[in-house]
Every structure is written in C-alpha cells, then in structure tokens.
Amino acid sequence: MAAMGAGNLAGAAVASYIERYTVGQIAVGSNLTAGVFWIAAVMIPGSIPTMALLFGAVLPVGAFNVIYGSMYQSAVDDSLLGRVSSLTRTLSSVMMPLGGLVGGAAANVISSQGVLYIVGGTHIVLAVFYLSHPRIRSLPTVVDADEAALAL
Fold it and tell me: Is 46 left (phi over 0), alpha (psi -120 to 50) or beta?
C-alpha cells in the first residue's frame, strides 16, 4: 500500500510534465502502462520488485487523475463546477467500498493473484477501448479543453 500511495503521489507531482500531450494520449498511455506494470507486479517474485512495479503501476494513474480533474474543471461552466465535482467525488466514494467487497469476494473464489491479473487486464482493455474510440482519442490537451472542444 505504501508503494502504491507513493506512486500515486509521484504521478500527481509529474502531471504538469505530461500536459502537453492530448488527454486521449494520456488516457491510453496511462492505462496501458498501469496494466503492464500491474500484471508484472503479480508475475515477478520478490517484495522489492513487486513494490517497485506497483509504484510504477499507479504513477500514471495519479498523473491521469490530475489531468482529468484539470480538464473537467476548465471545461465545465463555473456555475455547475461545484455540482459536477461533488457528483464525481460522491460516485467515487460510493464505488470504493463496493469495489473492495466485490474484489474481496472474488479473491475468495479465484485467488488474490487472479483478482490482481483482472485489475491489470482491465487497465489494458481500457487502453484499447480509449485507443479505438475516436472521440476519446481526439480529446485536446488539457490546456485547450473547454466546453466547445469537449462538445458540452
């Protein structure tokens, strides 16, 4: 957990270095990287390599979260920003315990490693989906994101 927390924090810290890329490119790259690192963390034995790979798996996710948050803050009308932010945070907060419950139940049925492979595979599937979806792929850079560019 510490390696993942540190990776998330490091990702947030380096987000400004990747904002020159489009949001679509960042969505694809961050999920593909996270998936590969996540699966490698399960496959490669040893505590140190696993911690390093989990750090690397969540670093791009932390960076993408900052980019995504910046995008919707710059694109959503100021009069609606509070509602959009509270809805996004509420839904995320509601899903966390549900995800823990489902993940824990699945681990009892298929194994912890199996669940972790599914998490990594889901990141890769998301990357492929984002890559194949023309609207997501064509999202602008976060600096250029506004209501018109996002068709809001």
Answer: left
pLDDT in tens, 103-122: 999 999 999 999 999 999 99
The reported pLDDT for the residue numbered 79 is: 87
Neighbours of 50 (CB within 10 A): 16
Look at the alpha carbons of 53, 58, 61, 63 in this order and tell me if their dihedral is positive or negative: negative
The two structure tokens encoding residue 34: 């996270």
Q: What pLDDT is attached to residue 57?
A: 94
**How wide is the angle at C-alpha 39 spanned by C-alphas 102 and 120, nearest 5°?**
45
Which uninterrupted H or E stretch holds 20?
none
Q: pTM of the full predicted structure? A: 0.86
Beta carbons of 7 and 62 less than 8 angstroms apart: yes
